[in-house]
Specification:
The protein is α/β, with parallel strands linked by helices and 317 residues long. It has nine helices and twelve strands. The protein has two domains: 132 residues, Nucleotidyltransferase, domain 5 (2-Layer Sandwich); 165 residues, Nucleotidyltransferase, domain 5 (2-Layer Sandwich), CATH 3.30.420. Belongs to the ROK (NagC/XylR) family.
Amino acid sequence: MHTDLVAALDIGGTKIAGALVDGRGRILVRAQRPTPAQEDGETVMRAVEAVLGELHASPLWQDARAVGIGSAGPVDASAGTVSPVNVPGWRAYPLVARVRDAAGGLPVELIGDGVAITAAEHWQGAARGHDNALCMVVSTGVGGGLVLGGRLHPGPTGNAGHIGHISVDLDGDPCPCGSRGCVERIASGPNIARRALADGWRPGPDGDTSAAAVATAARAGDPVAVASFERAARALAAGIAATATLVEIDVAVIGGGVGKAGEILFAPLRKALAEYATLSFVQRLAVTPARMGTDAGLVGAAAAALAGRTDTAAMGV
């Protein structure tokens, strides 16, 4: 019998992943469905129910004592609702109640996907052993989460640490969120590629215009590609430095597709951070790549379920 077994859901615009996870963070059973992101809300929920149904079919399900959900946001953990930007059929959707019903009444914990990845990195990854950390996901968007005083700090609605929408350019481009000059508008993968294309970068014969292709060009020395990554790095550095100045983090962990670009991102990021993080109490701030990979959302959702949002210190997440 697994006394610390929980179910975990990682819900994004592309896929809905599910797992049964034990108290050491080991994934014992997996299930996954594509997200029917452009369909109506009930169709999306049926995909969630199919994932839960597959987990329920495992003999291990009888030991599950809670369900943790890490969802694309915005989420509202206080109301139990989600409104993912890239799932238009879900607006203030009562996901916690629906999952509780589908899971036979088990307790359900909801956190944003950035907070879930933070929980995973603090429990088992690059932020392990740090009491004050910012963990970021730099991908199609830019999200994040905070660990403060050794505890996961999701905030009242589960969105604390959402660094992607700190403004770092007062006269910058309008952001789809309604603000201007946000970190995400400069540093996300699509915006790195958009900037490079606007400044004259041209993709290779395969026509790949992704940020990964820009990173490849930057590694080969293309000056426009290098400049686009340097600008993204400055935006990230400004946001990280602002966060560190407010709450005194000592490590910033960067994951997501853009985070995999390696030194093309991290070298200019460290250089820019030295220019922005100048006060004595933030000068030793370290920046490091994430370690948890594609399972981070599931492991973090499991961490939330195991600990409960009211007592995340119980298991060191």
